[in-house]
Protein: TolC family protein
Amino acid sequence: MKRIALSMIAAFCTLCSLQAQQAATYTLKSCLEQGLLNNYSLRITHNEEQISKNNATLANAGALPTIDLTGGYRATLDNTNSTVRSTGVTEKQHNVFDQTVDAGIDLNWTIFDGFNISTTYQQLKLLREQGETNTRIALEDFIASLAAEYYNFIQQKIRMKNLLYAVQLSKERLRIVEARYHVGDFSRLDYQQAKVDFNADSAQYMKQQELLHTSRINLNELMGNEDVDQLIQTPDSIIDVNQSLDFEELWKATLSVNSSLLKADQNTQLAQMDYKKVNSRNYPYVRLNAGYGYTFNKYDINSYSRRNNFGFNGGITVGFNLFDGNRKRERRNASIAVKNARLQRDELELALRADLSNLWQAYRNNLEMLNLERQNLIAAKDNHDIAMERYMLGNLSGIEMREAQKSLLDAEERILTAEYNTKLCEISLLQISGKVTKYLE
Structure:
């Protein structure tokens, strides 16, 4: 069993060596740059932003006239009975065939409709800005997600290194126990326990290979790599934690540049414009129409056999909607929508304050835990070295040696977890405050 486990560990080490030789090297910045170009979700959001830009036109708001070119043909086939008033004689005509051909160009233009057109145009421009805001939100979410996965990949690599070290320690302990077992210094129980511990560490190391593989796949997917199995090598071998964040500065930045708050403000303005559009129906409207056309008529029994008409026509319409039954209801609902938009904005600000406070507390706690665990690691290494010396001299049992080894590995794992959790808090704090794009610098 030991030989099989050793062979598996050797195979994994060889595989890691080959991967390191074939892998492409990515920094966090290069990962982000490639993701910004290739990520499908970002590309979709950018296209949606382009649609909102295309919609922000005077024509879409109804401010420009419409010009129609029309043409038509109409024919009638009738049987006609006509009674002459003076004589009372009835004249009958059968299959009377009349024809009309017309063509023309018509212009219709709403000159004024109670500020509805101008408000609609302002609304379309604001929707264009909101499209940019949506793109910014998607961009910040993407940067935060990719940065978190990038450092998760580093975390999994460090953990794999730690587990490999654990396998090496267990292997050395198994070698010592096996040698002493054969000369009678250790019992079979000691030998079996060392073998069990070695196999357990080997299995954990192999499981870590799977976790590292999953993280690499996720990172490639976020970057938009067509080959999601692309091997990745990172120059960063540690999780570098920023310990200089300031809460008040983060909160001020949140109030001024947070993209979700900006979108909430835009939603409030959109609701106010909807209210203004409802009120625009309290004003009269002015519409202009004009055209130039040609009409040809052909008659079977008229006094004229045919007639041609062509020329200009035009007019202006002024109107006022006196009652439609819905205006008061729509005005009340629009007013409530404005209030709701403001409440949602205030609710969002409160939620951001709560999230920032919670993340800040977690950030500070993880920093303190990180400093404490670094001190514990020094003590755990010293304890392990002392235990190994006593174990070599036969003054320490295998169980006690295993406990010292486990304490060392647990200390390394706690440091790694604290570093990663602190980094996640840092990323989230920067995202809320609108500063997460600093990772692109």
Observations:
- The chain has a mean pLDDT of 88.
- The chain is about 65% helix and 15% strand.
- Strands lie at 24-25, 66-83, 90-112, 232-233, 285-298, 306-319.
- The two ends are 51 Å apart (CA to CA).
